Amino acid sequence: MNKQATSNGAAAADAAAVAADIEAQRRYRLAAKSSDPQTMYQAAAWSVHNKLVDAFDKTQEYWKEKDPKHVYYLSAEFLMGRTLTNAVHNLGLEGEYAEALKNLGADMETVRSQELDAALGNGGLGRLAACFLDSMATLDLPGWGYGIRYRYGMFKQAVKDGLQVELPDYWLDAGNPWEIRRPETQFKVGFYGSLDGDKWTPSEEVVAEAYDVPIPGYKTKTCSTLRLWDALPSSELDLAAFNAGDYVKAVELKRKADEITAVLYPNDATEEGKELRLKQQFFFVSASLQDTIARYLEKHSDLSGLAEKATFQMNDTHPTIAVAELMRLLIDVHGMDSNAAWGVTTKALAYTNHTVMPEALEKWPVRVIGKLLPRHMQLIEQINTQWLASIKDHVSAKVAKEQAAKKAEAAAAAVKVAAAAASAAEGKEAAAEEAKAGEEVEEVDLVAEALKAYSIVQENQWNKDEMLVNMAYLAVVGSFAVNGVAAIHSEIIKTDIFPHFVELFPQRFQNKTNGVTLRRWLAYCNPELSALITEALGTDAWVKDATLLAKLKPFAENAEFRKRWRAVKQAKKAELAAHIKDVTGYEVSTNSMFDIHVKRIHEYKRQFMNALSIIHRYSEIKAMSPEERKKVVPRVCVFGGKAASAYYMAKKIVALVLSIAETINNDKEVGDLLKVVFLPNYNVTEAELIIPAAELSQHISTAGTEASGTSNMKFALNGSFIIGTLDGANIEIGENTGFENLFIFGIKAEEINRLREERKDFKDYDPRFIAALDLIKSGAFGRPDYFDDLVASISDMNRGNDWFLLANDFASYMDAQAEVDALYSDQEEWTRRSIIYTASNGFFSSDRTIDQYAREIWNVQPCAQP
Ligand code: GL2
């Protein structure tokens, strides 16, 4: 890392060659006369593009020749962020490019800031997919990502009159140097139409065209791909309509195709039951499977061995239609018999669950699938019928056992009754009756009833006339492996989401704790800290082998090292402070603790609870004497995150934070003791600036709701403390770092069902909680009416009834916050532990996660060019 490119002649010559190349791109590809930052960015990007193409071609040729098993990561989302810095670093050319740009009168920082984020994802799930691609390439694992080339990514968030507003993200505006269009790689994808027996004739057809986004590994020749599909009309014009003069109808085909890849659905961890979404899902899944099969058949004569050469990892339920589509392709297109096809399908597919939020577990109406994909609906019915038949014996035996237990219970009860009324004749009669009742059960109906819990096709519990396909069940039945994304989450899916399936095949269920790439999330976003780590360890090998970070531990005891560690944090805080000033106009002091809460806005993530704790802190400061105020630990509380456009409460939470910020930041009495900032448009690039500057980060979801979280890992690796609940990966971070170093509070996951039951009578409100709510209601932060529903959602049992249990956790949250303040006052100890965070969390490298997937699920081996 940070190799001094100019320190030797060869590197200087390389920089000169790079400069010449950038110039050539500017002159000929862009035909640009000026060298403004955007032009220089484009020129540099196209020059890197060419290097990626070389690396990409060599890798793919090598893999083609060796024919190793591949993994295909099917995901509706890839949240890539910017590419330039990452690519240049992974290629090991950062020095050359920096030098070259300097020689051309530009500078790397300005140039790189021109790039728009590729935001083809909502949040954690999409960003995880991007980290996984980086790790797969770095570990030389033959693998591709497959997704959709949305023309509009995640919306841009702006603030207007104290509210969130959404703006379209047309990220392809200035062209995209990071993709290669492949007009030679096209597949037809059909929709709707009719079914004659099992012969499907679609009535609408589009063409999927491939775009490859090269993914360079770090310090390796391997460069793999993210293949994204665009939709084209099967013919530009409906000629008959055109000739008849109906021009609107004539371009209808184009409009329909455009619609499929137009926008990313901006919902995070919530279902979006729209037909267009299913269309998107099927579109990319079908194209990806066809593409893989076509390549497979170049080398193999039939598809019976497909699963030995390919695993398809389904990223959540979004690509689950793959179960039916792979069956259809094998049976209808390639003539395999259906049993053999089922054998191949269930050996080739694996499924990752990313959420337990009930509203996010996709269930598609049979009606919708039947209309859009009639053949697939037929296959799903067949799969379900066979599946239920195959488990009938098991379920019958289970029912019989349960009945026997009930009978035994009834008999025991009868004996008791008889004993109690031993002398009375009626006692005997009653006993005989009870025993008999236990036997009169219709077992057949009981089995049918019990089977419903295993059925992929189910009744809609809210509408008895509608049948639904439970996509998660389809995924479990159609896969050879199912995994959760953190230890606690993988247990919860076994006990709460799929208990019936666990009982049948426990070995199918696994855990793969998430990870993040240390390249983007430490080495490149925090070069100052990286340099310090490299210097201390005497090597930069930790960038590829994160276990080496553990060797930092002894340095925590070294006062000189701590001083330098603190200096880096100060520098990163100063950068963030400047950005805050730039974007919001607020001036914040870098002597304050930087307390950060950034993630999608969701009630379960409880940004509202943090807001209430800030209101309490504000009231406390206001009530203090000047002497008391001197003891306050000053804080800057930073929020960031997007609320889904249709998520009513989430938008109110954003508005509340903005209102609190305005009141508090303008209160002269409070000054630097407390500042609140909402940074709009939180995205990957913002995160790269925010995370290195954090001293405390908040991961305070209701226990049992956040599957994993991945920003918690990024913060920990950058030496930030965590205040959080026993939820998701917080728990494993605690195990690695030592729980004494985290600020853990709140209820446990196993308590929430009971507490939700009890909350109707909940009386134990913390007075600070009540006072904070009252302050909102009083209008202290403006528009009390606007916040009425939000306040009611956690305090009125008829209007939300605090489903996420803020009231239960508030007191212990405040205790944890008090501990934070106390520790921060001892800067030596704080810094010591901050170093421990970085040193302890190498486990959360996505290289480790991907290595586990490769060994324990995919059975894919590295295949590196010599
Ligand atoms: C999520 C989970 O909410 C989050 O906790 C997890 O870290 C990521 C990645 O596994 O997946 N599930 C989900 O639907 N989204 C997530 O971020 N959008």
TrEMBL record:
Organism per entry: Micractinium conductrix
EC identifiers of the protein: 2.4.1.1
InterPro entries from the UniProt entry: Glycg_phsphrylas, Glyco_trans_35, Pyridoxal_P_attach_site
Organism phylogeny: Eukaryota, Viridiplantae, Chlorophyta, core chlorophytes, Trebouxiophyceae
One GO MF term: glycogen phosphorylase activity
Function: Allosteric enzyme that catalyzes the rate-limiting step in glycogen catabolism, the phosphorolytic cleavage of glycogen to produce glucose-1-phosphate, and plays a central role in maintaining cellular and organismal glucose homeostasis.
Protein name (Swiss-Prot/TrEMBL): Alpha-1,4 glucan phosphorylase
Similarity field: Belongs to the glycogen phosphorylase family.
Pfam families: Phosphorylase (PF00343)
PROSITE patterns membership: PHOSPHORYLASE
